[in-house]
Amino acid sequence: MDNIVPAIGQAYENVFTVILIILAVCFLLCLIRAVIGPRVADRIMAVNMMGTMVIVAISILAVMMQEGYLVDVALIYAMISFLAVIVISKVYMGVYFEKQKKEEKKHGNS
């Protein structure tokens, strides 16, 4: 019976390692989308997705390392990531509306 528990622990560790590798690949793909992305909305979405994947990775590491403080770090990172996406979206909307006003003035005077 004692051999079963370490085997299950090793299986969980292997699963978590595979998940972290998959997250790393997805993170790189999102980084490429954030750099290339044809529109600003694509870039904002990619940054938001990267933030979410970092939170998941921190949470998985918290379980693997059995460190409770990493869950607090993940929660704080989630709040900061949420605020960053809101600020980026707000700035983009301001730039978009300024550009739209300039175009209206340009077409109105012609």
Relevant terms:
110 residues; 3 helices; 91% helix; mainly alpha; 0% strand
Count of all domains:
1
Helical percentage: over 70%
Low-pLDDT parts are none
Strand composition percent: under 5%
Intertermini distance: 85 Å
Rg for CA atoms: 21 Å
SS-derived structural category: mainly alpha
Largest sheet: none
Please provide a written account of the structure.
The model has no long low-confidence stretch (mean pLDDT 89). α1 packs antiparallel against α2 and α2 packs antiparallel against α3. The chain is built from three helices and no strands. It is elongated, with a radius of gyration of 21 Å. By secondary structure, it is mainly α.
In short:
With 110 residues, this protein is mostly helical.
Task: Please give the structural blueprint.
Layout: H1 4-36, H2 40-65, H3 69-109
Helix pairs in contact: 1-2, 2-3
